[in-house]
Write a structure and sequence with these properties.
The structure is a homodimer. Chain A is 45% helix and 16% strand. Chain A is of the alpha/beta class. Chain A has three domains: 71 residues, lambda repressor-like DNA-binding domains (434 Repressor (Amino-terminal Domain), Orthogonal Bundle), CATH 1.10.260.40; 125 residues, Response regulator (Rossmann fold); 130 residues, Response regulator (Rossmann fold, 3-Layer(aba) Sandwich), CATH 3.40.50.2300. The first copy, chain A, has a six-stranded parallel beta sheet, with helices on both faces. In chain A, strands 7-6-8-9-10-12 form a six-stranded mixed beta sheet, with helices on both faces. The interface between A and B is large, with 53 and 53 residues. Chain B binds a DNA duplex through helix 2 and helix 4.
Chain lengths: 344, 344
Amino acid sequence: MLLVRNRLRTTFESGSGVTNIRDIAAEAGVSVATASRAMAGKGRISAATVERVRAVAERLQFRPNEIARSLSLGRSQSVGLLVPDITNPFFPELMAGAERAAKAQGRTVLLTASLGAESAREDLRVLCARGVDGFIVVGNPFESSGELREAVGSRPLVVVDRAQSVTGISTVVTDHVAGAAIAVRHLLGLGHSRIAHISGPPGLDVTDLRIAGYSREMRAAGLEPRIADGEFTVDSGAEAIIRLLDGPHPPTAVTTANDLAAVGAMNAVIARGGHVPRDLSIVGYDDIVLARLVHPGLTTIAQTIGDLGSCAVEELDRQLSGDTEVRRRSLGTRLVERGTTAAA
Amino acid sequence: MLLVRNRLRTTFESGSGVTNIRDIAAEAGVSVATASRAMAGKGRISAATVERVRAVAERLQFRPNEIARSLSLGRSQSVGLLVPDITNPFFPELMAGAERAAKAQGRTVLLTASLGAESAREDLRVLCARGVDGFIVVGNPFESSGELREAVGSRPLVVVDRAQSVTGISTVVTDHVAGAAIAVRHLLGLGHSRIAHISGPPGLDVTDLRIAGYSREMRAAGLEPRIADGEFTVDSGAEAIIRLLDGPHPPTAVTTANDLAAVGAMNAVIARGGHVPRDLSIVGYDDIVLARLVHPGLTTIAQTIGDLGSCAVEELDRQLSGDTEVRRRSLGTRLVERGTTAAA
DNA sequence: CTGTTAGCGCTTTCAC
DNA sequence: GTGAAAGCGCTAACAG
């Protein structure tokens, strides 16, 4: 076939130096519309044309401008991901899972870390303006799920790691009640009976659920629950364990709201000359990478954190495909035994 | 026929029910162009009109569609951030700094975590297609800086944490030579003389620079450098320290390539019944959050990691403003003394 | 000062 | 099967 090469160089100058679909069309000797159809591979178009256009596109390293596609199609193949605190190691693991899954779907993740409700509202608006097709929100930066719903408008939304307080919104969670119960049973099995729980921030559903699981299991064993408020942070874990140990009937074992608090508790015990697990058995929650890095390694309730992210992406994809049913997906947890628990 | 539109999506249905600038213009009784100027607040326009249009925009909660702006303006006010591994706690801290700075500039960060050169090439192309205005690349996923330059095309580029191997590209780094030297001097000051160094992966410029700083300082003190290869990971740190301790003339102190390796070394010593810092003093590098969380707390060379990110954003902003000068910005390091170092 | 017009790069009718 | 043209929402000449 005769190659008619018409003013490739000229069209090259247009735009920002990158080849666009006009260049492809010109080089292939077809109209822009045909080039578009050929690239999409759908619509009424001959196989020969498809092949020819694609060959040209390949040669010229053509990548369709996603900005233009987004504007034209009304969707961007990108999703917004809002996390509360990127420096808390729990979230990067989740983000990694989400990003991997999104990439596999040909979507891009627009990440944003909020600092409180006001910032979150603005962050979500920015992402809306950037045309994300849907949102994954980890936790809930707002007082209510209504506020969250309002902030994302009509876009599909999946909430991760908040269940109770979120109504009418698809969620991905782990079974906090079951996880907390597993921790208690593990300690009971080791012969402990003075088992306390260092909780998360009061009022949070995750906190309540874990407390519920802990309490249920304690009562089932005929024991009295004993709870110290914490905050999901190392320092709060340290403070809480000190209060418990200095109080009446100090515990011989604790379950904690998360691994950070567990590490804080562990360090506090060691700092006052105690030994873990001899003087105190500790069970964390989450199994973040840190749990493996401390010494002794932290016995903990593992959530497959990356799966929370990838499941959220899958769930969002389902919604983007038109399925509007509200689903609550609950992932399993399991005990990972390391070095912070031992017989009473 | 004027009112008949080819596509039946009315303006209100388009997007997702969000008000657009046509709605604003109509409501304010001006043309779209005038509304645009009023929102931008520049061009020849009366103060009264500006006020009126903005009032309407406020009332209707108007946010300009950034996709459309991007297409029209040829820039998106977004930057691509490529990191090697989001689950290594070093990077989230850097990302947090970058995101904060970018937000302050009204830019959005498109994050992507690569897994090797092939993935990076594709990731960068995707971000290019999404129209990012520039790139921040942490490390260099490729063999050469040329490949990196090619992958980002003509877009502004800032490389973080790689200096030597990157030519003709603006960089933000910390002074690894100086940092490594500080670590050695600290140990010398404590009376140590058998000081080893657990290095990063061979061939990496960061590795070489830290080795250089360590060696220089050792020789200046009339001591023989002693280096064990590591890999920036916990496990490699553990293995390296075992090799050193089981070899001839076991060291009484080590400096390490990063905090993860330091933690690995620390755990290995403790695991074989040793005590840190009594049996071995350890100095980490980076001061990631983890350094505070282990027990005893890790003495380390602090890079202000968040600043690496925010400086990179600033540097990129400078380039986006038209300043094409290649700059190398070097941030300081300092010793953070915690519990892993003690007198010999 | 304001409106009209022409695009940004792509997709998608609608004719031929 | 293919091309011409409209249009996504916005900005920026250029007239008036």
